Amino acid sequence: MPMADKCTRLQFDKSLADTMVKSVKNKTTLKGHLHTYRLCDDVWTFIVKNPTFKMEQNELVSAAKIKIVACKNGDAIEAGKK
Predict the structure, then answer these.
(1) Could you list the residue ranges forming a coiled coil in this record (predicted)?
(2) I need a labelling partner for 52 at 20 to 30 A (CA). Which of 4, 27, 32, 77 fits?
């Protein structure tokens, strides 16, 4: 991967994590069938089939399948403590 691409992706990840910590206040509940999960290099990947998200206002959102990728990021954790 060229250096410019890598730097752009790293900055995007940091900006997204910072925005999520500072701006997103709504909570949601997820129900579904956990089809696959794995942990590799501090990155969790979950495949959930037939997920249903229940939002705070009791709004339901469904899909056939979703993929969740969660990474350990010290900068995101530190941003949440501020």
Answers:
(1) none
(2) 77
What is the C-alpha to C-alpha distance for residues 71 and 30, in angstroms, rounded to an integer?
Answer: 19
Q: What is the torsional sign of CA 16, 20, 23, 26? A: positive
Query: Using one digit for the tens of pLDDT, what is the confidence trace for 25-69?
Result: 888 899 999 999 999 988 899 999 999 999 888 899 999 999 998
CA atoms of 49 and 64, how far apart (whole Å) = 6
List phi, psi (to 5°) of 56.
-60, -30
Rounded distance, CA 53 to CA 63, Å?
A: 9
CA dihedral in degrees (57, 61, 66, 71; nearest 10)?
-10
* 37 Cβ neighbours under 8 A, 6+ residues apart: 44, 45, 46, 47
